[in-house]
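Morning. Coffee machine broken again, so started the prediction first thing and wrote up yesterday's gels while waiting. Chain of 204 residues, entered below exactly as on the submission form.
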Amino acid sequence: MARPSPRDIGLAFETHALRFLNSTLHTSLAHVGGAGDGGVDLRGFWWLPRAPGVVAPALRPSGLPYVRKIVPHRLIAQCKAEKRVLGPRAVRELEGVMAHLSGKRAPPSLAVLLSQSGFTPAAMDHATRTPAPMLLLHLPGGRVGDEEADVEVAGAWWNAAFTAVLGPLGVEIRREVALRSGVASVGVWYDGRRMERFGPPPEQ
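Came back before lunch.
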């Protein structure tokens, strides 16, 4: 059996990461990786409530978002299916992408860095100090042929800038562990309960 190519390995992990972000964190992202992607693998929106007390889903009968209650936060993600743990260089790279896109007409407001092998303490420390709102996720799955397996989150770190965006809305990221399986994950909570999807689903 032939070894999977680097492209196949990367695409498998991106597919795995996309499924997790859209199904668990309720983002509305799409895959954009490839030539000319500008360092972005996934791009889209994260529809979040404007303030505490909004009931999900906040959609009109037409299916369009009720923009007086929810707002789309532009979000980009980089997916790294590398054998070695990621160091601060990967965090600086994502910082650079955010800085480059900040001059665009519609810059992203949040960034997620997903690693198949985890992060060094130096990488987490750098992410803590960066002014860019950033979430780091260690997803050990997503190998070729295993993209649809249950997602385990081996680690999650987010910085003060990321919390500053979510906190005033009553939204927070929490680490979770399933009681039966013991599988670790993260969840989004809002007003003291697990957050549901507020905005439209991702395009198929």
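The longest helix spans residues 6-24. Going to sketch it on the whiteboard this afternoon.
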